[in-house]
Specification:
The structure is a single chain. Helix content is 74%, strand content 4%. The chain is mostly helical and 203 residues long. It has one domain. The chain has a two-stranded antiparallel sheet. It is globular and about 40 Å long.
Length: 203
């Protein structure tokens, strides 16, 4: 996490006008922490309290902007806090017995939503607005393709069976929930929905 935050701070200094970039670096960089913890067999007694502490720090930072690189965006968003809450809930529900479910939910949010935000802003394409949140064709497509790639790769790594139609259904669910991102609520709904769907996806 220190490396992720350091990278975000560096990007903020190099590109001060790209306020969303540093936040997305944190967003994307947080995702791999979960599979790394899984690989290292980090027990629940360490993983869960750590997640709660980090989420509490994110809440404090949201209020006082101690690390602007994490929260300095041009809209009202509780996404970073919601992201932390989602991870905490998933760890409590599934860790470590169903670590793949946690990884699925967090990685889809980290990579799918993260790259969708970056590419959607960088590449011009048709767009629309839902609850004052701009969405674009290229961003939504990136979310769908990245989500499918993440879930397929995770299924291969865990040697889990995967049905193409179910994969499509879970990706569509993730994309649909990501459309409703007012206040950053998608940072909560997408990881939870994907994680809960993982057992059905790989049944």
């Amino acid at each position: 996490m220190t490396l992720v935050l350091g990278s975000a701070q560096a990007c903020r200094k190099l590109w001060p006008n790209q306020r969303e970039l540093s936040r997305k670096i944190v967003h994307i960089g947080t995702g791999p922490v979960v599979p790394i913890a899984w690989f290292l067999n980090i027990p629940a007694l360490i993983a869960i309290p750590s997640a709660f502490v980090i989420t509490f720090i994110a809440l404090i930072n949201h209020r006082w902007k101690l690390l602007p690189a994490v929260e300095d965006v041009d809209r009202e968003s509780y996404g970073t806090v919601a992201y932390g809450v989602a991870i905490c809930v998933l760890l409590v529900l599934y860790w470590p017995e169903h670590a793949a479910s946690v990884s699925a939910g967090v990685l889809v949010m980290a990579f799918g939503d993260g790259f969708a935000g970056l590419i959607g802003r960088a590449v011009h394409s048709p767009s629309w607005t839902i609850w004052e949140q701009r969405k674009s064709f290229i961003g939504t497509t990136t979310m769908a393709v990245t989500s499918a790639a993440v879930l397929f790769a995770l299924a291969l790594i865990t040697h889990s069976p995967i049905d193409p139609l179910r994969l499509l259904a879970v990706c569509l669910l993730a994309v649909a929930l990501e459309q409703f991102s007012i206040w950053g609520v998608d940072n909560l709904t997408v990881p939870l929905a994907v994680a809960i769907s993982w057992a059905w996806l790989t049944a």
